[in-house]
Design goal:
Structural class: alpha/beta
Number of helices: 20
Distance between the termini: 70 Å
Oligomer: single chain
CATH class of the largest domain: Alpha Beta
CATH architecture of the largest domain: 3-Layer(aba) Sandwich
Number of strands: 12
Strand order of the largest sheet: 6-7-8-4-9-12
Largest sheet: 6 strands, mixed
Length: 635
């Protein structure tokens, strides 16, 4: 009997139900433990009251001690059950999110990447890369701010530029391991996504641990900046001579305290070393404070980060990119897992200060803050310089896991083939944000530089959707993800678009002038690529070009812009209602091709098949649409 092969939906459904069954069992056990704990506590109180008021034998105290011990054990067991419930709940949510993505319910996800929705970006606003119902909202499965930023940069087309010098050097090291050429980087990323896609248990475990980091996506940047300051600010490191002070003063303070309790010395003698401890800590506060605050910050969630790093560290990867990232977790000589566990123990000791009695009495007497600060300094000098690399490696894995989830859940998508020549050749190209049951796919070819498509068609026929499908699939391809097509061959393309344009009351900008500014950005980018200042070939996508002016000037301007883009070596597509723009295919037959969409009319019913056809559209539907909505229009 052959094994049953389940699809991604069935796999996620089965995993979700399995986790739900375990969660129900855990909740039942937790309720039993909670009831037992309450009963034991009540029994201990009742027995204690009986001892006091009924004068039971002294042996009854052993029973009280036994009940107290049992109560403590039940508390520990209940806490572990609670943690197990949290993990199972997170696992259920992981599979529910995957199922929501496959059913089209992902538009309610909270992460929409609005921080990267910049008006000045060459294509993000036009192609729904960020914001509500965006590509980022569909893809994002990261748990940390770093991971979110990496995914956003890939979707923004930033595969090399970074925000600061430390991040820049770290990314250069990463690209050196994967290959410095753009195509090599993307191919390595594709291999990593292919490797991670079937690793459902790994991606689930990483997502579960990440979901327990806390509310929102914590930013480890304050921690890694603190960790990397050792060499940059050596004057702030605590001198090793303080170890003597950290030993001598507590020994004297504890010794005098014990001696005074036995009456060997007056109690007031204890106050002298205790005051010296407090004075020494006060003098060192300015040097210890930043380290202690950074390490104990709740945002760092060190133990959780350590577990995420451990998950990555112990996995056996095959893709070279993932192996290279994994190696970076061992750059300090010891693994990131061990170093983060060591740091978590230090922070655990540091957080003992949260107890008021410990903070104001035991802590100062033992010079606790100084010991913790010295331990943190030792950790920073040993591992701090590579801590940023750990979190950057984790961020890359998170971003790759997001793309891998997309690849696993959409087996009908394919990984594009990158070639040396600038081209765009797609079979059955569709829009990835449109659900499979509603999506219509078309073959689209732009042979190379200085080639363009003029797309005509009636209103609502699919012109804008086609342009967005071309652009968003190039965005996916450049990020290393599979694309919504049967096949796609492309070169290094730089997307630049002018599709959604709005006026600005604040800037006093009309809609037409705003469009001119966007078109200038497209032209400027084409000039940069022609001159070699930017790598790649511009893929322009222009929707209803210059429709803010009269027909005559719009047609003259559109022809001039399209001619200039083709002269600069750019390639792409422009949609228009101006059938006159199709004349360029006559004057430039080797560079411009006309394609169109059309409507189908049966009686008073108008429908669209969204299928691409050659040539210029021969019909229009504006007047008919006006009549359908109730406007009395006489031809």
């Amino acid at each position: 009997m052959s094994d049953i092969v389940y699809g991604p939906r069935e796999i996620h459904e089965r995993a979700r139900e399995s986790h739900r069954a375990v969660l129900v069992s855990l909740e039942a056990r937790a309720n039993v433990i909670a009831t037992a704990r309450l009963a034991v506590f009540g029994g201990a109180i009742a027995l204690l009251a009986t001892i006091v008021f009924a004068h039971l034998a002294s042996a009854a105290w052993f029973a009280v001690f036994g009940l107290v011990l049992l109560f403590v054990i039940l508390v520990v067991v209940h806490a572990r059950l609670h943690e197990a419930k949290e993990r199972k709940s997170a696992a259920v949510r992981f599979h529910e999110r995957a199922l929501a993505r496959m059913s089209g319910a992902w538009r309610s996800f909270p992460s929409i990447g609005e921080r990267w929705a910049l008006d000045t970006h060459p294509y993000a606003g036009d192609l729904d890369v960020f914001g509500k119902a965006s590509l980022f909202q569909l893809l994002d499965a990261t748990s940390t701010r770093f991971g979110e930023e990496v995914l956003a940069r890939w979707l923004s087309g930033d595969n090399g530029n970074t925000r600061d010098a430390s991040e820049k050097s770290d990314q250069v090291a990463s690209q050196t391991a994967l290959g410095s050429d753009f195509t090599d980087v993307i191919r390595a990323r594709q291999a990593a996504v292919r490797d991670l896609a079937p690793r459902l248990s790994f991606r689930e475990e990483l997502a579960v641990e990440g979901s327990l980091l806390g509310e929102g996506k914590p930013d480890p940047r304050p921690f890694v900046m603190w960790a990397g300051q050792t060499s940059a600010e050596p004057n702030k490191a605590l001198p090793s001579s303080l170890y003597g002070l950290a030993v001598v003063l507590p020994v004297i303070a504890v010794g005098t305290s014990v001696a005074s309790s036995f009456g060997l010395v007056p109690r007031v003698v204890f106050l002298v070393p205790f005051a010296l401890c407090i004075g020494a800590l006060a003098r060192l506060r300015s040097r210890m404070g930043p380290s202690l605050e950074a390490a104990s910050s709740k945002e760092t969630a060190l133990s959780r980060y350590g577990r995420m790093l451990a998950i990555v560290d112990r996995e056996t990867f095959e893709a070279p990119a993932l192996v290279a990232l994994q190696k970076r977790l061992r750059e300090s000589g010891a693994s990131a897992t061990k170093e983060m566990a060591s740091l978590s123990r230090i922070v655990g000791f540091l957080d003992a200060r949260n107890n008021e009695i410990f903070r104001f009495f035991l802590g100062p007497m033992l010079m606790w803050d100084l010991w913790c600060a010295l331990a943190l300094d030792r950790w920073r000098s040993r591992a701090g310089r590579v801590a940023f690399g750990w979190f950057r490696a984790l961020a890359d894995v998170e971003a790759l896991a997001s793309l891998a989830g997309f690849a696993f859940e959409r087996p009908d998508h394919t990984f594009p083939e990158f070639v040396d020549d600038a081209t765009f050749d797609a079979q059955s190209l569709g829009h990835p944000l449109i659900e499979a049951g509603k999506r219509v796919s078309n073959d689209v070819i732009v042979p190379g530089p200085s080639h363009g498509l003029v797309v005509t068609g009636s209103n609502m026929s699919g012109k804008s959707t086609l342009l967005r499908a071309i652009g968003i699939n190039v965005v996916l391809a450049n990020a290393g993800a599979p694309v919504c097509a049967k096949s796609l061959r492309l070169g290094r393309l730089v997307v630049a678009s002018s599709m959604r344009v709005s006026d600005s009351l604040d800037e006093g900008t009309s809609r037409f002038y705003a469009e001119l500014k966007k078109l200038k950005l497209v032209l400027d980018l084409a000039r940069k690529t022609q001159s070699g200042a930017e790598q790649g070939t511009v893929l322009f996508l222009l929707d209803e070009i210059l429709h803010g002016t009269n027909t005559r000037e719009r047609l003259i301007g559109a022809r001039a812009i399209l001619r200039e883009l083709l002269r600069l070596g750019a390639m792409g597509a422009v949609s228009t209602h101006d059938l006159g723009l199709g004349d360029l295919a006559t004057s430039m037959p080797d560079q411009v091709v006309n394609i169109h969409f059309q409507e189908q009319v049966t009686g008073e019913i108008m429908t669209f098949d969204y299928l691409l056809r050659q040539g210029i559209v021969q019909s229009s539907n504006a007047l008919r649409l006006m009549q359908i909505v109730g406007l009395d229009v006489n031809e």
